[in-house]
């Protein structure tokens, strides 16, 4: 009996030893790690591709901010917003509305029946862009004959004939109202300014210039607005102005997630909007690009006589 038990035990030990020697590759962890790494890399690549494709559509919120509705839910109406987007696309079929930002220099030509040539052209720097839908508007500023002139245009105004970007760039602040109290050279641009053409595919340049304000009084209390594009605010402040600025400062607002949520459109709504208009916007962009190339390479006609 004892001999049979020892024999069966030795047989089991030999079988286990043969199995381990034969299938050691199955028990090794190296291939599993390699497979896990390959799967992880594949997931990362897939995530990057998905994120890139999603961001490529969401980049339109900077180029076409007026297509996003008002974040205030009391002013939302899905049917009105959809009809407005259709009207905006039809208007863009009639006129080329280029990409521009606050800080870009534009030349706008509008129809004016009281003008000698029935048109009126104004050149200036964009100091504000606001509104949504058909109520989108932008403001241009220029200094003409030592007098600051500002003209506000409705972006989808049917009297606008040409919107030309003379210099495409951004500034450090979202609004440039402080140019009203700045030195005039920061708002002076010639009406015969030549357009500056950027190479295709280059990002929009950021102009880091910081303006200098004139002595007080100012139109607004610029020292309380955390401006990045002004360099000499502290030179014109008194001690009581600094104390009042500290008392009225609200540094916690940048951590207020609920306030930020109320001021933005949810990503789900943005995806629905861009899925609706993105194809038509891209088609319009390609059509405008082909037309500009034809104008560039067209040969002038020979004049007879």
Automatic annotation (TrEMBL):
Family: Belongs to the bacterial ribosomal protein bL19 family.
Protein name, UniProt field: Large ribosomal subunit protein bL19m
Main location: mitochondrion
GO cellular component, one term: mitochondrial large ribosomal subunit
Keyword Ribosomal protein tagged: yes
Lineage: Eukaryota, Metazoa, Ecdysozoa, Arthropoda, Hexapoda
GO biological process, any: translation
Gene (UniProt): LOC113499341
Subcellular location: Mitochondrion
InterPro entries: Ribosomal_bL19 (IPR001857), Ribosomal_bL19_sf (IPR038657), Translation_prot_SH3-like_sf (IPR008991)
Gene3D superfamilies: 2.30.30.790
A molecular function (GO) term: structural constituent of ribosome
């Amino acid at each position: 009996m004892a001999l049979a038990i020892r024999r069966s035990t030795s047989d089991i030990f030999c079988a286990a030893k043969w199995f381990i020697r034969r299938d050691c590759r199955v028990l090794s962890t190296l291939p599993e790690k390699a497979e896990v790494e390959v799967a992880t890399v594949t997931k990362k690549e897939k995530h990057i591709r998905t994120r890139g494709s999603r961001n490529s559509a969401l980049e339109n919120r900077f180029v076409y901010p007026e297509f996003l509705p008002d974040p205030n839910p009391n002013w939302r109406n899905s049917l009105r917003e959809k009809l407005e987007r259709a009207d905006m696309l039809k208007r863009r079929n009639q006129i080329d509305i280029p990409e521009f930002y606050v800080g870009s220099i534009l030349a706008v030509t509008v129809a004016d029946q009281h003008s000698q040539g029935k048109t009126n052209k104004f050149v200036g720097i964009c100091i504000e862009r606001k509104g949504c839908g058909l109520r989108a508007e932008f403001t241009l500023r220029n200094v003409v004959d030592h007098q600051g002139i500002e003209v506000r245009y409705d972006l989808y105004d049917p009297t606008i004939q040409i919107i030309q970007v003379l210099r495409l760039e951004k500034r450090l602040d979202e609004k440039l109202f402080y140019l009203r109290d700045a030195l005039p050279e920061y708002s002076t641009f010639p009406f015969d300014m030549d357009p500056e053409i950027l190479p295709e595919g280059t990002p929009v340049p950021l102009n880091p210039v910081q303006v200098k304000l004139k002595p007080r009084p100012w139109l607004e209390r610029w020292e309380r607005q955390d401006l990045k594009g002004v360099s000499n605010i502290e030179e014109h402040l008194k001690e009581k102005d600094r104390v009042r600025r500290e008392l009225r400062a609200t540094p916690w607002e940048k951590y207020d997630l609920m306030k930020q949520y109320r001021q933005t459109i949810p990503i789900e709504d943005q995806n629905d909007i861009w899925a609706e208009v993105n194809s038509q916007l891209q088609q319009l962009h390609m059509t405008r690009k082909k037309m500009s190339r034809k104008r560039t390479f067209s040969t002038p006609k020979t004049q007879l006589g």
